[in-house]
Structure formats: structure tokens, C-alpha cells
């Protein structure tokens, strides 16, 4: 029973299909008509070999349309489409043969013209196999999808490289005739007007094959690299002129015309093309700004070195930073460059301060709130704080150094000098108050000092250190004045009083008054009794400690000093002179048998030659013993007279007075002479003063370790605070203890210090 039902169902379906194909014609006439329509349609659609010279059978379009209409009524078009796509798959090897041929030529020559010819050849394959539009969009879409799928699967890996070269070469077509290989070989329609569209056929072929959509990211990367190469070539190390406006003009002339074909090829008007290019144009402008920003960040250290001549480059960088968020990269790049090129022992402290000053000015221009400066400057400030000569270098900037030295006090001559700025608490009642920037750190404050000098001074917690160094530097400069003109120093003091306050500069005013009073006292004494001595008289309690020496001036120099002291006591009965014989200069005329030698020398050299007036030959060791000075100091003084031709070395360490001049001798040691001639300052520096004070505290430390055995650094620090005048930090104490350890006075183990046994 079931079998009969199945037979009836199959028979019904067969009869239904036969009726549909036979079209109710008598016999099998309709079936024969269907067979003829199928044959015509499949032969018409069959993919032909372009290399086959056999002519293709021509069908009239009337026959073709009739066949497709017949198959459509028979509902056989889906089957026809499947048959066509299967035939195309079987013929795919013909296309692969051409692809392999052109790719082999490209890999041998490595030039993009072979890729262009292959694309035109593939376009011809596509058009040759493509169904006519009259057959409907469904068949055409299915064919296009299948053709592209088979095509992409046939491309070797090297095609991407070749296609990238081809796209890169298309930039040379802009505003210039394209080469012959960029135009298809067969007859083609006339070119559109305008030189910028000479590569229209190449882009049209790429669109036909779907390459523009499939390789969209590759095409964009070519434009990115083109922009990068041009920026690097034209903008590197060009800081004295703005380049951003030039780059945007270049983009308008070279990149935008190129963008029309790959990104606005369907535009029907200029406005429509402009609208289509708006998005991608913004991406390319962003990339241009980012490339320029990256370049300037790499060069930022050198740009800051050239500040303010490099202001145009900073202006470009500021505009790029507003377009591209590269603030973190700026901080990392500049900190890395500072660490490599600036913050190391080989860099001079003055150079570091110069670069820090330029960094402040440059980063405040880029970021007025100061977040970038805060992040970049922190390592510089910490490094400068660790350098022993930083304070002295900053003070030198404050007052200027050398002839014509301007100093930081005169950095902006058109602006009034301001007091040192101090950090203030936020005033939330201020209507102009603004919150801190979003990328500011937890310790950042927007009201930090912006004045250059205030920022430099704020490296240290207290300005007292600068005041002490100012006193030392002023003492050296005052003692170096020989013409009595202290106007420059007086002006510097007035400027510094504005900066630091009058109370902090009272000692400096006393020092300056001592110099003028000294000249007045000397003029009075000279009026009473003419003397060749013109001393500088200073108040011991107001001046920094001066270099001391134990020797006394011999002979006539001692007599002159005693006579001057007597006259001074008559003028100032309540005061007494304490001579510093090693400071100052003495003008001498040494009369020998055949000549007179004139020289201006320090007192020690004058004392040495005075001893030769009593004895012609002296040993350096004997001179040192006689004058109660070190042998090195005596040798330095003797070598001065050897250089002047007054003394001669008879034997090692033995020198003789030359009454009669001799020819210059080369027996003296030039290295020793150069070392001996090094000058020493007349005033103890702040560092030297601290070392002398720490020697006093060493007695306390030695007593602690003797009585208590061993102590930690923190315990030593807490006990030293009981000593009068002790104000050192634990870091300074650690440096002192480490120096004592190197000298063999103490040892340390596990942070515990004890005396060396």
C-alpha cells in the first residue's frame, strides 16, 4: 500500500515537471524548445579563453533574450546561474596562468608597471566573462562576487607588495602626464580633461576588480607613508620657520588631487567630491600633524637649546598638540633626552641651568598651566639639588659674571623686577579660579611661581642658602675691585634686595659700606703720612670667613705694616688691625746688577723674594720652614720668580738669585709649575665653610662613638641636634660620615657606625 502511494507521488511530480518544461505542447515539442534555449544560454555565458584565436559563435540578442525568457518561465534561471558559476570555476586556471606570468615578471624586475598591466589584463577577463546587463542585476552580482573571490584566492603573497608600489607610484601622476603602462593597451574612450585625472583608467580597473575596497587600508598606508616621507625630508631641523602652513598647502596641491580617484570616484560635482573627501581628508591631516609632532618631539631637546630662535617650531608643535594628544609622549621623550644628554656628571652646571631656563620658557609657551613643565622639570630640579655647585651657579646668574655680565636680574629689561614668588594656597572665593588640568599630578599646583629666578631659587626649601652664597660671591667681587668703582655691585645689591628682601641683604650692605669706608680711612692715613701700602679694611663679623695663613711679612714689608697699623690706631683708637698677609697684591721693582724687574705679585711671592735679599741661594724646604708655610706654597711662589727670570734652579729644590740675566733654561718642570700657579680664592666658599663647621662637630661624633660604642645614623643626628648651631640634614650628615669612612676614621655595617679600631 505504501509503495503504491510513493509511486503515485513520484509520478505526479514527474508529470508536473514535464508539463512545465514542455509548456503544454503536443508530444515533446516543448521539451525540445527548452533544450535549445538551454544550449543557447549556456553557450552564450560560457567563459571563453582570451588567448584562444578561435572565433566565438555569435548569437543575435533576440535569440539570447528569448532563450532567457523561456528558461525564466520554466523557473530554471537558478540552475542556469549555478551552471555558469561552475563553468567559470573550471576556467579559473586561465586567469591564474596570466597572474603567474605577470607576477613572475614583477618579481624579476621589481617595478610596478607589470602589476598595472596585470590589472588591465584581469579587467579584460572580467569584462569578457561578464553577463550582459539585460540579463538582470542578480546574475551580474553573483558573477562579480564569484569572480572577485576566485581572483583574490589566486593572488600570491607578493601581490600586496607590488600593488603597494603601484599605488605609491600613482602620486607621480598628480599634475603630470602618466606613463604609458598606466593606460590600457586596447582602444579606450578619450581621457577626461585636466592633468590630475590622467590615471583614471588605472583607478577604474582597480574599482572594477574590487581592489579599492579590499586593499583600502593598504592604499591609506601608502598615503600615510608618502606624507611621513615628505614631512621628514622637508621639516627635519627646520626650526627657524613655521612648516605647518607649508605642509597644509602641499597637502592641498599634491595629496587632495590624488585622493579624488580612490575616495571620491563616484562624485558628480566638486561639492559632492569635497563632501566625500571630508572624512578621509581629516584623517590624513591628523596623520600629517601627528608625524610633524613626532618629529618635533624627537628634536625637542635641541629645539629648547636653540630657544628663542626656535619659536616657530614651538608654535607648530603647540598647534599639533591641540590636534594630536601627544602630551604624555612629550614628557617621556624630553625626560629621556634630559637623562641621556643633560643629567650626567659630564654636563656643566651652568649648561644644565641654561637648559632648565629654556625648558621653563618653552614648556610654558606650549602649556601655560604648567603641567608639562612640572612633569619634565622635576628630575632636573632633583638633580640640581644634588650638585654641590648649583647654588653658586644660580647666584652667578643672579648678579652676572665677568665684564658686561648681565645676570638673570636683567633678563627682561622692559619688565620691573619682582620679589621672589611664593606658592600660595588656592582661593576658592576667587571668581577667576579654575580647577587644575585633568592630567595634573597629585602634587601639582597651578599657582606655583612662574618667574624664572623664583623657580630656580625654589629648587631649595630655604633661600638662606642663596643669601650665604651671595655674601661669598659679593666678597670675592668686592675684593677683586682695584679702581674703587663699586657701582655695579651696588646696583646688584639693590636688585637682590627687591628679590630677597632688605633684611636678607643687610650683611651685603655692610660689606659694601666697608669697602667705601676703607678707601676713606686709607685716604685719611695717606694724608697724615704717605705710605706705599693701601689695605682693604673689613668688619670681621659681617664678612664670610677669609682664607687664613700663619706667615708674617719679612723685612721692609713688616715695617710698612707696623707703621700703617700705628697710624690706623691713632685714627681709630677703639679698633685694631689683624693682617691677612697672603691676600692682595704688591707692585715691586727689583733692582739687579744689569736690570730692573717690575712685577705685580701676591704678598707671598713678595715675601719669598725678600728673603733672597738676605741670601742669594735658598732651598725650598728651608724657605717653607723659615716662613712657616707649606712646601707647595713656597714652590709656587719661587716658580713665579723663575718664570720672570729672577731666580734659577741650581739643583733639585735649590734656587739662586740671578743678579746677571741668563738665557732661558728649559730645566724647570712645566707640569709642576702649572700646578703651582693655580689660583685660590681669597674667600671660603659656602661648601668650604660647611666642611670647616663639620670638623667641629666631628669632635661630638667621636665622643659619642667612644662612649656609646656604635650608633645608627638617625641616633647620631638626634644627638647632634643638641649641639649649639647644628642645622645639618641627615643627608648631609650621611655624606660627612661617608667621607670619614673613606679617610679611615669610622666603619659601618648594617647601618651602624663605629670608630675604626
UniProtKB/TrEMBL annotation:
Domain of life: Eukaryota
Keyword Ribosomal protein included in the entry's annotation: no
Example of a GO cellular component annotation carried by this entry: anaphase-promoting complex
Region spans: Disordered: 404-445
Record keyword Acetylation present: no
Keyword field: Cell cycle, Cell division, Ligase, Mitosis, Ubl conjugation pathway
Entries under InterPro entries matching the protein: ANAPC2, ANAPC2_C, Cullin-like_AB, Cullin_homology, Cullin_homology_sf, TPR_ANAPC2, WH-like_DNA-bd_sf, WH_DNA-bd_sf
SMART domains for the chain: APC2 (SM01013), CULLIN (SM00182)
Cullin family profile domain segment(s): 453-642
Record-given protein name: Anaphase-promoting complex subunit 2
Species whose genome carries this gene: Lentinus brumalis
Amino acid at each position: 500500500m505504501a509503495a503504491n502511494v510513493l509511486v503515485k507521488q513520484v509520478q505526479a511530480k514527474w508529470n508536473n515537471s514535464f508539463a512545465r518544461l514542455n509548456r503544454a505542447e503536443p508530444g515533446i515539442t516543448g521539451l525540445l524548445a527548452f533544450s535549445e534555449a538551454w544550449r543557447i544560454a549556456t553557450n552564450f555565458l560560457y567563459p571563453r579563453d582570451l588567448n584562444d584565436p578561435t572565433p566565438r559563435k555569435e548569437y543575435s540578442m533576440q535569440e539570447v533574450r528569448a532563450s532567457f525568457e523561456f528558461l525564466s518561465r520554466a523557473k530554471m534561471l537558478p540552475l542556469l546561474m549555478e551552471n555558469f558559476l561552475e563553468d567559470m570555476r573550471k576556467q579559473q586556471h586561465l586567469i591564474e596562468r596570466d597572474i603567474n606570468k605577470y607576477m613572475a615578471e614583477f618579481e624579476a624586475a621589481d617595478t610596478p608597471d607589470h602589476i598595472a598591466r596585470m590589472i588591465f589584463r584581469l579587467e579584460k577577463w572580467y569584462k569578457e566573462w561578464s553577463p550582459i546587463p539585460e540579463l538582470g542585476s542578480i546574475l551580474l552580482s553573483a558573477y562579480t562576487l564569484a569572480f572577485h573571490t576566485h581572483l583574490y584566492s589566486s593572488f600570491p603573497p607578493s601581490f600586496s607588495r607590488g600593488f603597494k608600489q603601484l599605488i605609491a607610484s600613482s602620486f607621480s601622476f598628480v599634475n603630470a602626464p602618466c606613463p604609458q603602462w598606466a593606460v590600457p593597451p586596447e582602444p579606450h574612450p578619450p581621457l577626461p580633461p585636466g592633468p590630475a585625472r590622467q590615471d583614471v583608467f588605472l583607478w577604474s580597473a582597480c574599482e572594477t576588480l574590487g581592489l579599492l575596497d579590499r586593499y583600502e587600508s593598504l592604499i591609506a598606508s601608502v598615503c600615510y607613508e608618502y606624507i611621513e616621507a615628505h614631512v621628514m625630508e622637508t621639516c627635519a631641523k627646520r626650526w627657524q620657520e613655521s612648516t605647518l602652513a607649508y605642509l597644509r598647502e602641499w597637502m592641498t596641491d599634491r595629496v587632495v588631487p590624488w585622493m579624488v580617484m580612490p575616495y571620491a570616484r563616484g562624485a558628480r560635482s566638486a561639492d559632492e567630491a569635497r563632501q566625500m573627501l571630508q572624512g578621509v581628508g581629516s584623517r590624513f591631516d591628523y596623520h600629517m600633524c601627528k608625524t610633524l609632532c613626532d618629529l618635533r618631539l624627537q628634536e625637542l631637546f635641541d629645539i629648547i637649546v636653540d630657544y628663542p630662535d626656535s619659536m616657530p617650531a614651538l608654535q607648530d608643535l603647540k598647534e599639533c598638540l591641540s590636534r594630536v594628544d601627544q602630551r604624555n609622549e612629550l614628557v617621556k621623550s624630553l625626560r629621556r633626552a634630559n637623562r641621556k644628554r643633560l643629567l650626567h656628571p659630564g654636563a656643566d652646571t651652568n649648561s644644565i641651568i641654561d637648559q632648565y631656563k629654556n625648558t621653563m620658557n618653552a614648556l610654558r609657551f606650549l602649556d601655560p598651566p604648567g603641567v608639562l613643565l612640572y612633569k619634565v622639570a622635576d628630575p632636573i630640579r632633583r638633580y640640581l639639588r644634588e650638585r654641590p655647585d648649583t647654588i653658586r651657579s644660580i647666584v652667578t646668574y643672579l648678579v652676572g659674571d665677568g665684564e658686561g655680565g648681565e645676570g638673570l636680574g636683567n633678563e627682561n629689561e622692559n619688565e620691573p623686577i619682582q620679589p621672589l614668588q611664593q606658592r600660595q594656597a588656592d582661593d576658592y572665593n576667587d571668581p577667576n579660579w579654575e580647577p587644575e588640568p585633568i592630567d595634573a599630578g597629585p602634587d601639582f599646583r597651578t599657582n606655583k611661581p612662574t618667574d624664572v629666578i623664583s623657580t630656580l631659587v625654589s629648587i631649595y626649601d630655604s633661600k638662606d642658602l642663596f643669601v650665604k652664597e651671595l655674601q661669598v660671591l659679593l666678597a670675592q667681587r668686592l675684593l677683586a675691585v682695584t679702581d674703587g668703582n663699586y657701582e655695579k655691585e651696588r646696583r646688584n645689591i639693590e636688585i637682590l634686595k627687591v628679590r630677597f628682601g632688605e633684611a636678607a641683604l643687610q650683611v651685603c650692605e655692610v660689606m659694601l659700606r666697608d669697602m667705601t669706608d676703607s678707601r676713606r680711612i686709607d685716604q685719611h692715613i695717606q694724608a697724615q703720612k704717605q705710605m706705599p701700602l693701601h689695605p682693604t679694611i673689613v668688619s670681621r663679623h659681617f664678612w664670610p670667613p677669609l682664607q687664613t695663613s700663619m706667615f708674617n711679612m719679612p723685612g721692609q714689608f713688616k715695617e710698612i705694616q707696623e707703621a700703617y697699623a700705628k697710624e690706623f690706631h691713632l685714627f681709630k683708637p677703639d679698633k685694631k688691625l689683624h693682617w691677612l698677609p697672603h691676600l692682595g697684591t704688591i707692585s715691586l721693582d727689583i733692582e739687579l746688577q744689569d736690570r730692573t724687574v717690575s712685577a705685580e705679585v701676591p704678598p707671598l711671592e713678595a715675601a719669598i723674594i725678600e728673603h733672597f735679599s738676605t741670601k742669594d741661594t735658598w732651598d725650598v724646604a728651608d724657605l717653607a720652614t723659615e716662613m712657616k708655610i707649606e712646601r707647595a706654597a713656597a714652590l709656587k711662589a719661587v716658580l713665579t720668580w723663575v718664570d720672570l727670570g729672577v731666580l734659577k734652579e741650581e739643583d733639585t729644590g735649590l734656587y739662586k738669585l740671578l743678579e746677571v740675566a741668563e738665557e732661558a733654561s728649559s730645566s724647570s718642570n712645566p707640569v709642576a709649575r702649572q700646578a703651582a700657579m693655580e689660583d685660590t680664592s681669597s674667600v671660603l666658599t659656602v661648601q668650604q665653610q660647611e666642611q670647616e663647621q663639620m670638623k667641629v662637630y666631628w669632635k661630638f661624633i667621636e665622643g659619642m662613638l667612644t662612649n656609646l660604642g656604635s650608633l645608627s645614623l638617625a641616633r647620631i643626628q638626634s644627638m647632634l641636634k643638641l649641639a649649639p648651631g647644628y642645622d645639618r640634614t641627615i643627608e648631609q650628615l650621611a655624606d660627612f660620615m661617608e667621607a670619614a669612612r673613606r679617610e679611615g676614621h669610622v666603619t659601618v655595617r648594617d647601618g651602624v657606625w663605629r670608630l675604626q679600631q
